[in-house]
Amino acid sequence: MGETWFPPRDGAEGGGGAGLIERWGLTLGEPFEGGVASVVVAPAVTAEGEDVVLKVQEPHRESEHEAAALELWGGEGAIRLLDHDPEKHALLLERCVPGTPLAAAGADAAMDVFVELLPRLWKPAGAPFRPLAEEAAWWLESLEATWERAGRPFERRLLDAALGALRELPPTQGEQVLLHQDLHGENVLAAQREPWLAIDPKPLAGEREFGLGPIIRSFELGHSRDEVVGRLDRLGSELGLDRERARGWAIGQTIAWAFNSMYHETHVETARWLLEAA
């Protein structure tokens, strides 16, 4: 198919997709459904017959250093970055085949995978990745005002718990590693090179305990008090991490993300259960 489904982008010659198909010698399929920060994510085949994925993004805070994260991982537990065009915010990626989400394996099997996968992704990291402390300060700056504008959609004690975690945890962090801050059951896919590969990093550099949060709130693995707290307890125990720091980070990020999410109610419930799990 042609390039007509790429929306134009100011400053990119001929639009966001112009030249990418020719440059990388691609035959494109229909775009995958979903994606928030991305303009398009589409399967493709190279001139050599390799199955790949073309991802073209609008500039976005969370995905700013996605290419650098994939380069640092180097294909260890995550998809490989094959090429990228920083000016057009485009990435040519390894394609996971069959691409079944990890959530489909069932909650227990998925947790086994996460326990093995997380340490492989936690590589020592600094620049260019945004520090977790900086991201926490950014959330902290607007969180209370956002809660007020939204009509105080949940109890004050939950907001205070999030604010407290975002204030207290950043100065006392442990070793700074590369964090995938959206590593849940739909962002790990079945593949052939490895059984499971992480996709779609939203990278930060921070302590390991923060990295448990997205899995703890991974509602596709089960959404109840016992299941949420069970994921917190199992991950903390098997990975040898501080349960209370992980719980605090999970509350802070989950509330910060709740306001712009279609999963607002499940995020709030998750944070409430975590607050009660002290």
SSE order and pairing:
Layout lengths: L19 H5 L2 E2 L9 E8 L5 E7 L8 H8 L7 E5 L4 E5 L12 H15 L10 H18 L6 H13 L8 E4 L7 E3 L5 E3 L4 E4 L6 H4 L8 H15 L3 H16 L5 H12 L3
Helix pairs in contact: 3-7, 4-5, 5-8, 8-9
Q: Could you describe the 3D structure shown?
A:
The protein is an alpha+beta fold. 38% of the residues lie in helices and 15% in strands. The strands form 3 sheets. The protein has a 5-stranded antiparallel beta sheet with strand order 1-2-3-5-4. Strands 6-9 form a two-stranded antiparallel ribbon. A two-stranded antiparallel sheet has the order 7-8. Helix 3 runs parallel beside helix 7 (225-239), helix 4 runs antiparallel to helix 5 (156-168) and helix 5 (156-168) packs across helix 8.
Summary tags:
278 residues, alpha+beta, 9 helices
Short note summarizing the structure:
This protein has 278 residues and is of the alpha+beta class. Helices cover 38% and strands 15% of the residues.
Which structural class is indicated by helix and strand composition?
alpha+beta
Task: State the end-to-end CA separation.
Answer: 54 Å
Shape descriptor reads: globular
- Kindly estimate the percentage of residues that lie in beta strands according to DSSP: 5-15%
Counted beta strands: 9
